[in-house]
Amino acid sequence: MTEPLFNAGPVTQTTELSGAPEQGEQPDRPPRRALPRLPHRAWSVAAVAFVTIIGAAGFASLPGLLIDPLHDEFGWSRGTIGFAVSVNLALYGLTAPFAAALMDRFGIRKVIAAALAVIATGGGLTVFMTEPWQLILCWGVLVGLGSGSMALAFAATVTNRWFVAQRGLVTGILTAGGASGQLIFLPLLSWIVERHDWRPAALTVAIAALAIVPLVWLLLRDYPSDVGLAPYGADGPPTPRPAPRRGAARRAVKALASASRTGTFWLLAGTFAICGASTNGLVKTHFVPAAHDHGMPVTAAASLLAVIGVFDIIGTVASGWFTDRFDARRLLAMYYALRGLSLMFLPILLDDAVHPPMIFFIVFYGLDWVATVPPTMALCREQYGEDSAIVFGWVLASHQVGAGVVAFVGGMARDAFGSYNLVWYGAGALCAIAALMSLVIRRGPNAQAAAATV
């Protein structure tokens, strides 16, 4: 018969020497497997904001595709159509600072959901228009107000509330959302316009805006403290949610009055106005009709504009990374100088087909498209602290005013001279001026603190 395993003295001694637990102690257990650490909730909020900006970018992609169809169907001049686009771009910018203050008053989620509904309404109503004033009302006013409420001031608000570390990188990623939307929507919308009509294209972007509303309402949160967290990269416990700030319009105007007493504000506003003039106002609005003037098919020109969006994503994210590490003023000067140089060469590159030099321009210009946003936003943050999102909204307003002026002037120049050449050269010269202005911007009092959080 086999003896029990633990009944002999020597065996008992052996077990004691081997570290057997004494009576009343729990036996050793294998260590528990550590659960995988989930990403901070700030990244999911940034992802929702990214998708939202993509949806809104569909409307920014459409004006350049509508100039020729509206001119052919209604006989409206390009100057008249360009005026509607300029109203859209101007309101897009002028709404941004008030939208940032409204987000402090009512919350990000409510403001963005309402903005998407207004965009969808304005875009949907354009299919019934028959007069120029209806285009100005629907596309210029309604879509301009809605898109301005979820412009880059939205990205600045999300970044400031949810992130302490990696702000430059996140700014670059969210800014790239507009380019991603351009990449997604431009080829699709140009195909719809050419194969069917401009009306189904307008309805497509209206439906896309409405489809994002549930996503915003269910997943977007106003502050990290709403889910019991501190901002990403912050030390210590969650900061309590601040009380809603009343008087959104008064606060926006007050922030402008305070910022406008500094020379930095006017330098940032001036350089960003040139940025808008040389991108949204000129290339995004007039590149497709200008290429079509040289015999290039609309779908080919729109595809080139979409490719700009591909390299814009790379350039903007890289610019955010650079902004976390290098002097934002020098980055701005370099970006504007390179952009101006590329625009000077564009008139000799336009042709009825796509050649390698044009592809080089598209890649080069795309990397620089909105690379200016992360350093501009960083300089606002350094200089103006907790009001930086609102101040950046005013800087963005200058961006869109510049875009609106050139969208209108570009159409008028095309009607008067029969080409866009003078506008391309003028934009290149303005970019050279912006490069010089960037170098004289002073660093703000929060520059060292911002650098310490990288």
Structure described in brief:
By secondary structure, the chain is an all-alpha fold. It has helices at residues 9-17, 41-61, 63-74, 78-106, 108-125, 132-149, 152-162, 167-195, 198-219, 248-259, 263-278, 280-293, 298-323, 328-349, 356-368, 373-384, 388-417, 421-439, 447-452.
What is the number of independent domains?
A: 1
How many helices? The count is 19
Structural class: mainly alpha
- H-E string: HHHHHHHHHHHHHHHHHHH
Mean pLDDT: 81
Beta-strand fraction estimate: under 5%
Cα distance spanning the termini: 73 Å
User: Which percent bin holds the helix content?
Assistant: over 70%
Which stretches of 5+ consecutive residues score pLDDT under 50?
1-21, 449-454
Radius of gyration: 27 Å
* The CATH superfamily title: MFS general substrate transporter like domains
Could you say which overall geometry the principal axes of the C-alpha atoms support?
A: globular
* DSSP summary, beta strand count: 0
Q: Main sheet?
A: none
Q: Tell me the CATH topology.
A: Growth Hormone, Chain: A
CATH architecture: Up-down Bundle
CATH class: Mainly Alpha
